[in-house]
Design a protein that fits this description.
- About 40% of the residues lie in helices and about 15% in strands.
- By secondary structure, it is α+β, with helices and mostly antiparallel strands.
- It has one domain.
- It has a 6-stranded antiparallel beta sheet, sandwiched between helices.
- Helix 1 runs parallel beside helix 8 and helix 5 packs across helix 8.
- The protein is globular and about 65 Å long.
């Protein structure tokens, strides 16, 4: 297993990250030696907030039932009397003009439902993560995305929007993605007004992290270059 604590420390120092990156692992069985989540959260992305705050734990499918859309992107079927919640929520979202039903089949999903999902700060990851979530100001996200491009590990499609949780299966299938977040995610996680996400596949993390220092240094040089050009060439 990689030294995720060292990688987190490097990225935090280079980028000045205020929030801890979150490691997410999807697996079929409950992990040994990891605390099981107890309680209730309104969404799957709410678990990101808990992990970013320092907690390491795992959830089971039932912990995700409160969010029909998040359950959908994670391939989790909501059973029994609650099975109709997804169509109800989607119908409401369509009625208010938030989504169109024809968009739904194109939303990325996990290929199979997990038996357990492990969440932790990156540096405390108990196993190799499937994806790592970074949240921060647009300028920091820009550098991470540019590092993913330089590493040849960026997904070749536009910035993702709603729902935010589709960024996880999208990154696992296609490479590092940027997400603007969605209003639900921003409410549930406390994502700041000027903050965005980058989601990096765990298998690509070390290569992307290696490129971050080069890209950050290059941006520093270019900032001085463009500042000088602005002072010399801008007439107003």
């Amino acid at each position: 297993m990689q030294d995720y604590r060292a990688i987190e420390q490097q990225l935090t120092k280079t980028l000045g990250l205020a929030k801890r990156p979150v490691a997410v692992k999807f697996q079929q069985q409950a992990p040994e030696g990891v605390e099981q989540f107890s309680g209730s959260e309104p969404s799957g992305c709410s678990f990101w907030r808990l992990a970013a705050a320092g907690r390491t734990f795992f959830t089971v499918p039932g912990d995700h039932y409160n969010c029909p859309v998040g359950s959908y992107t994670h391939g989790i079927s909501i059973p029994g009397k609650r099975a109709g919640e997804l169509p109800h929520v989607l119908s409401m979202m369509e009625t208010i003009g938030y989504v169109k039903m024809e968009e739904v089949p194109g939303i990325p999903r996990l290929p199979q439902p997990p038996g357990a999902v492990v969440y932790s700060p990156l540096g405390d990851a108990p196993a190799d993560p499937d994806v790592v979530l970074f949240a921060g100001p647009a300028e920091k996200i820009m550098i991470l995305q540019e590092a993913a491009i330089r590493a040849g590990r960026a997904a070749q499609f536009p910035v993702l929007g709603r729902p935010t949780c589709m960024a996880l299966p999208a990154a696992m299938a296609h490479g590092a993605v940027v997400s603007t977040g969605c209003i639900g995610n921003r409410v549930y996680t406390g994502l700041g007004e000027g903050e965005l996400y980058v989601v990096v596949p765990g298998k690509d993390l070390e290569r992307v992290a290696t490129e971050v220092e080069t890209v950050a240094a290059a941006n520093g040089i270019l900032a001085q270059y463009h500042t000088s050009r602005r002072e010399q060439l801008a007439s107003e």
